[in-house]
Amino acid sequence: MLHGEALYRKLPGPCIVLSEDAKAYCEKRGLQTLLLDNHTVGYRPFKFRQVKNYTRFDFSEIPNTVNYLNRRHGIIFFFDTYPGINSLHSLKKIMLFHGNSIKVNWFQPWRINCLKQYDKMTTLGPFWENILKKKGLPQDRFLKIGQTRCDEIISLGSKPENQEKIYARLSSRPKPILSYMPTWYGPSSLCDVGTALLRNVSDDFILMLRPHPETPASILQEINKTVRARKYMILSHKDYDDSISLMTMLSSSDAFIMDLSSLLIDCLLLDRPILFAHGGNYFQTLWNRRVYRPIQEVFNRSEQITRLNVSSADILIRKALSQTPDKAARHCVKERFFYNLDGHAADKLVEAVKHDLVNL
Question: pTM to 2 decimals?
Answer without folding.
Answer: 0.88
